Amino acid sequence: MDWLFFFEITLAGLGTGGLYALTAIAFVLIYKATRVINLAIGEMLMVGAYLFFGAAVGWALPWWLAIILALLGGGALGMVLERGVIRPLLGENPISVFMVTIGLGSILIGMVELIWTANPRSLPNFFPTDPIFIGEAFLAPKTFWSFVVAAVVIAVFLLLFRFWRGGVALRATASDQGAAYSMGINVPAVYSLAWGLAGVIAAGAGILLGSIGGISSDMGLFGLTVLVVVIVGGLDSVLGALLAGLLIGWMESMAGVYLGGEYEHLVTFILLMVVLLFRPWGLFGTREIERL
Amino acid sequence: MRIGSPKESYIADEALFRTRTQWVWLWLLLAVLIAYPFVANLYWLFLVCLISINIISATGLNILTGYTGQVSLGQAAFMGVGAYTVAWLDNNTGSPFFINLLAGAGMATLVGLIAGLPSLRVKGLYLAIATIGASFILQFIFINWESVTRGTRGINIEPPSVLGVTLDNPDTFYWLVMPIMVVMVLLAANLFRTRIGRAFIAIRDRDISASVLGINLPFYKLMSFGIASFYAGIAGGLYAYFFGAINPESFPLLMSIFFLAAIIVGGMGTILGSILGAIFMTLTPEILRYGVDILSPYIDNAPQILSPLRTAVFGALIVGFLLFEPHGLAEIWRRVRRFFHLWPFRT
Amino acid sequence: MLVSKLARQLMAPVAAIALALGGAFPTAWADNDEIVLGGSIPMTGPFAFAGLQFDRGLRDYVEWINRQGGIEGRTLRYVGEDTGYQQDQSVAVFRRITSRENVNFYFGDSTAFQQTINRELDRRDILMTGASFASELNDPERYPLQFLLGPDYSEQVGILLSYIAEESPGARVAFIHSDTEFGRDPIAPGRSKAEELGLTVAATIVTPPGAADISSAALELRRARPDYAIFHGYVLAPIPDFIQRARQMGMNTRFMGTYYTMDQGIINEMGEAADGFMGVMPYRYYYDETGPAPIMDAIRELHGDYQTTTYTQGWLTGVLITEIARETLRAGKPFTGSNLRETLDSLSDIDTGGIFGQPVNFRGNSIPLGRIYRADVSQGQMVPVSDWIELE
pTM for the complete prediction? Predict the structure, then answer.
């Protein structure tokens, strides 16, 4: 066993896992506030990456300004989707809402391809490019910096949930909608807020992901792995999303290297099946699922 | 205007087709179906064969989603199981095609039942997510079980032959796929006159009350899943024969979404909905193509917007129907019919 | 009120039915003096970058040859439609075009489509070629009415390997490929070919389709420390990422690619990092003016700016079918499937007007000829580093 190599692979895996965790937070946010399983999260992420591409390359803006615009755009997209499509369906059969998000994903892909075509693109690099060494172990700078950014963003959001008024309103709505209403919380505004924030996070994750491996209209597939992450972590658990994100990132790296690249997604989906069979509420989720 | 349709016996009440008008229309439809291959060209026959295959698969999915209330995103993957079983039998045993088709459907049912196991544990959307997982795992098997599937190179299938006639072209294949489609649709329609079908509907409407009524939920849910996979298997087998070659990329997740879209657009929980939805969704790309042709003098690079437009319209149809016409085309059809029934009065 | 609402609701299906009926009757057959080239062309979707160029190339060639008087006095006509690079759409387009036109030649857009439609070709007397260089199609027994527009993927890798074996015997080679039909195609034959040539296969690295993050694969590559790494099954991503990471890790592996990665795009998109990237290319680049090349001159005359190799591929399609059609007509034979195939087999030392650097011969269904080029970023061009290599 080559422990240095093992360690390097682990670091690389955790790097990817950071992005999974970040996107999973967006997913959990939406689920907690509106109880919607949003299959379009991957496509929201893709749109964020393309907005950045459009601003940074199309309009040739400086990268920091492009990032801000992309994040705002992602947030606006989240709010528009919530207001326009999700809210009319809230309270309906959850299956309809689920299928609507599938449709939304398809619309977003079509729009992106209409504007930017289906050709894969690369994003301008804004990370430092000096190699990072942790002891002997090499870590690609992009992986390192995107992990750092993801970690910081996650930390900021956790603090927001804890202390900011909006965050408290969000948590209140998630735990008991009726009580939240009666305490004077504007629940519809909380819905918008949750989707907006999720849009911002997804756009950020999209920019990070795109700056690592380039962007294309099918990068929304990333969302399917994120779906597995949140199921494994527990749909309504932020902690679960973080840990499961790192776990799945690490597992995929291991499988990719020691079994071969074709096994990367296989292990993810086998894990999904196992969790669904034996612990459907996930590692940290609330055990409220109705059993039959 | 038609006034009432009184029934004098339970048998009459349960009949699939209740009035003489319905029978007249039915015979007319049959006549059209028989006459069609003599007037249509090969391209339109090709489309009708494809539509028929899609109708079979969509009907299966509608039994599961529309009637039992379980969502599956694995319909395409189960079609793949049927297709690969047919392909393997065709290449290795030389058994007649209808045996292959049934074996393919049987295999798809078996795989579907295994994939449906999570539905025993939990309800709601978890099954949909489990079927996504199952699709990926099946995809992996299609790619990597090279001794059976020939991996990514794909596998060729000889056209079936009946009574010495080789069904290798839409004009001959039509005579295979159309009767099978009609039979499968009639079977599905009849299913809901039986205890099983009614149990499905009871589960969809309220699982707890269904349980109280003495319906064994896990059993019937699995059975619904099995039936949906059976339909997928038949459709997959026909797909393999029809196209003559399949590969792991023939049955992507997008195709499962296509079937889901078809039953949403057509109308969930109605047999007519599966038919209308499959027709509509198969023809949509063609209609868009004409639309883009018409627009091409007015916009630059019109051909280049076709495929993104298709993707977007595809999604917009799902969203639009769920928001504004949740019962789909079948409901529109019913409204039109009612309009004529009541004419000259209004609803 | 109700009627107008109803009319609105009825509009869409009625329009659809009207269209359906309109299409249900075949339009007039093309007259006999034409030679028709049909095409399922991926003008949108993930393969659009090449499909649009095929389309332009075919159009320009057809116009050009008809200005030269056509093929033995007959005009060549091209009918292509978009497929979005989806197999069912490709088949639908084929069905539509062949039900309207008397098609003689056809351009297919993918391996899967060309496999599926194979059994239709003989019935309709169509000779097919296309975008696919799959080794699977290079089998005259199973695909008698198809030919490839150059070396198949295994042969492309073979050409790269023979170059490596010559340049540095016994070198360590790694294969990096995507887990797709396209990516897997030449890997098994490539590995055995490498061993045959005395090279060491240091690693075979698979990346899942659409993988964005190749961190662990890059680490695997570093551990294998190959002298050469051959990419296959990609167009661009994740090649730049691999190369960038390899540089950062201090590796001096030389990276190589196959046909679809070798267009000018790799220099334009990768910039500095592309310098030294090598690969196999069967066709002359637009700016390669060494040696006489009348067809390339015609392209240069038509377009003052760079034309992609996929555009040239469209022209090559035209040149080859012109050659086949002309010989068949001269022999006075009708355009049946077996006659077209016979003509193809009888052709030798075909002059492609300089698209290939030397006269070409079919072996099986392919033309196993290509040349190694290297990206020179300072010139902004691909420069040849080998002679034309023909595999036996």
Answer: 0.88
